[in-house]
User: Fold these one by one.
Assistant:
Number 1:
Amino acid sequence: MSEGWATFLEGRFESDGREFAPNGVFGNWDTPIGARIRQCYPTRFTGRFPVDTDFVDVETSNCAYAIAATVYSYATTIGINFYALAETAERNDQTLPQAARTLGGPELDETGWAAFVAEHWG
């Protein structure tokens, strides 16, 4: 998920740090990451977090990076500090949902995340 972290930060940079991959930043156009999410989510990741094997295959890795970034974006909306989430996951070799539990905050679940992705990029 470290590439998802990098993509999340890139997506925030595209909007001057205000939010991740907002729609319509460039007139009627998505940000490049937003466009990738719209393309990849319904065809490969509907309703499920990316898993390690998604990051191995060249065919799916760019999609996996973008979709993993949405998990960080969702985490911020439910009150999880994305820096702490990334650090905890890396330090403890945990998935993001496991790291969220370690932090003792809100549950980072696929159902809430899937609804978030559908609302923002669906």
Note: Residues 36 and 66 are 7 Å apart (CA to CA).
Number 2:
Amino acid sequence: MPTLFSGDVVVEYSQIYVMSDPTEQLWLEVSFAGQSNGLCGAAWPGVLTLITGSHTGEVEFTVELHDREPPVDRVWEDVVEVSFAPRSPQLALVQSTTEQSWPFELDQVDYRVRYSAVGMQDTPAIDSGSGWDTRPLPDRYLLQFWPGSALPDVVLKQSTSVAAYWHDYARNLPAPSTPASTAKQRYHDIYKALSGVPFPGSAN
């Protein structure tokens, strides 16, 4: 079981991403549209949007690669799974402002991904910036990849009200009317469904 990354990462606005292009602009709603879980957004091709309990600061994060589906360790309080196809073998955990990133590599094959969290409920109620005074932050996360065909996302375990809030958020988003392969149109469709007006510069 190779560990692709293990260490502290910086989260902001309760978010961190897995992406190959850290300059890519991503809208949170598009990451989760059509999903049943609100912790690991995989609706935008080649990107994972990961939600954390802590708003701002450093959290412990581990990324693992497995050759088959691993068992779920009971220590984790909130667990979800999604499918993911990387657009490049060079990936990174990316801070939401793209100021910092933590690289790792994956083969370009289809994966099943499990995102597990513990301590989301124990994070302090903080505003942006004040989290830097809290060391260490109590929540920690595990991201596990293994080869697998595309399947719908699923919530395997829900223990905290923080996770429940984000799952409800995802389930109440408008479902996309276009497949993930037409990512640009999907973005425009969801923008229009949420705002009531077409995306600026789009044809409809």
Note: Confidence is low (pLDDT under 50) at residues 127-131.
